[in-house]
Amino acid sequence: MKERLTMRTAWTIRGCRKGVLLLLLMHVLLGGLVAVAAEPDTIVMALNRDQDNMDPHLHFQRTGIIMNINMYDSLLHKNPQLAYEPSLATAWKTIDDTTWEFTLRQGVKFHNGDPFTAEDVQFSFERVLDPATKSPQYGNIRAIKTVKIVDTHTVQLITDKPFPLLLERVVFFPIIPKKHFTQVGAQAFAESAPAGTGPYKFVEWKRDQYLKLERFAEHWRGAAPVKHLVIRVIPETSTQVAELKTGGVDIIRNLAPDLIPDLKAHANTYVSTAPILRTHYLAFDMREPPFDKKEVRQAANYAVDRKAIVDKLMGGLGLVLPTVVHPMAFGHDATVEGYQYDPKKARELLKQAGFPNGTDITIHAGVSEAFFRQIAEAIAEMFTEVGLRTNLKLWDPGPAWDKFFRGEGKATHGYYGTWGYYSTFDADAILHPLYHTEPGGWVGKWYARVQGLDALIEAARSTLDKDKRLSTYATVQRLLKDEAPSLFLFAQHDMLGINKRLDYAARGDEWIWLYDAKLRK
């Protein structure tokens, strides 16, 4: 099987690269690839799909976060080294185990001119906590029960019990202007009149075409080095790459690994990569056959050659994980050993589970990039090789998540996807959404059924005692290894293609924070 994957993968990658290069050549021959003169004082970023709206409290997909992150500020920020920095809060402290107090920065203005005050902080948190808002970010901050205004520039976040993730969660919790939002209404704010305190302000949004931003001259950090920021929606990878080379685009993300050597070698481009939390997994529906049997779930984990996938399909830009907890996340236990590739063991376990001739399964995957599709196909092939004959269904990630919300995530035997932790460097940020079974939850609601796991996850997120949390997470990871509620895979790198006129480096939190970007002279 390893030989087969290697041959199939090599063919797939060569075919993919040839397809992209052929498209680029066609552009040239047809006059479509004309050198584009870079706009002065402008950064152009390309994404493969558009955001749903510009309301930062209604995003949970990475595309929306990236498109809006430069317009809004949070109470705290992380620098490129991922250390906390003051942002809209200049200082913070714990009053007791459930009360966090934040001193707010004075003299800050929103893009529409409104002054930033404690009322805006209170309004922003209470809006997401209000069930009527239906914010997908509710779960991130639901531990907060009260937002108390102490004075104009001091607020307290009071949780229902000790909540160790609070600082991590407020790093990307955008603050919006209460007065402006109330005046223009939710729809206008989301579509035509957003306002934050970030380094860039809104100019124009044409759905499925572009978002235009302009630096905010009165930004409290000082004006951004580059005046204009344009985010273009370019679904085709070949077009993104072509425009990156000719200067029509300055930065593209989620590079297919097989394109990296070409962009490294090109005179006008370079590549920046960084390990990130984004973790690949395949959740099994433990409520229904065949994955209600532990032996079948374990067999699936023995069936997959993770190292071959990382080496061949990710170009080595990934880290095989024993479970789903990343080494960069608090709570990772380095002593837990992962499943080894052992197709013989997989077949034996299937036989023990009552499937000597294997069984048919259907897996769906939310994919947008070509290399994600290749990974899903490789997994399906390896499953089939040991007797888990796999019918693979590919969904666009946006509609795929909509299906979860409508209750259709349970339609198949498993779901392959990725989880970016909301850039929260704590084990809870992946354990709770993937495995907790509460109503209204994420993946775990539809798939995971591990006795005692909910209670362990709750215990670890309900104490500030780091040693207790580490001990609980060690127990959780051993339980995960044994019960195998998922196919444990790997964490990837962020992979950015950048035009040499722009100076920027990939970050470990998957943000594209262009206040730090500079145009080279």
Automatic annotation (TrEMBL):
Keywords carried by this UniProt record: Signal, Transport
Signal peptide: none
Gene3D superfamilies linked: Dipeptide-binding Protein, Domain 1, Dipeptide-binding Protein, Domain 3, Periplasmic binding protein-like II
Keyword Signal: yes
Assigned GO CC terms: ATP-binding cassette (ABC) transporter complex; outer membrane-bounded periplasmic space
GO BP annotations, alphabetical order: peptide transport
One Pfam entry name: SBP_bac_5
Segments forming domain Solute-binding protein family: 84-440
InterPro entries (UniProt xref): Peptide/Ni-bd, SBP_5, SBP_5_dom
UniProt GO MF annotations: peptide transmembrane transporter activity
Protein family per UniProt: Belongs to the bacterial solute-binding protein 5 family.
Protein name: Solute-binding protein family 5 domain-containing protein
Origin organism lineage: Bacteria, Pseudomonadati, Nitrospinota/Tectimicrobiota group, Candidatus Tectimicrobiota
